[in-house]
Amino acid sequence: TAPYGHDGRWASLEAAVDAHLAGGDTPDAGVVDALLVPIDLDVDDRAALVAFLGALSGEPPPIPWRNWPNG
Prior knowledge:
The chain is mainly α. It is built from two helices and no strands. The protein has helices at about 15-20, 45-55.
């Protein structure tokens, strides 16, 4: 669900996908991994990607912060 990105910079899934397809976001994004390069998808492929990512929903698994075994 929105907002997207570790800091909530993208209000929609489409904006997040577009930023990543562009090879990163804006200069204020900080250090961008060299493996994140622009990817040219046609309109249909971009729509399919957004639809697929949008279908991934539900509650994330519980974080085991207090359940680590002793030792």
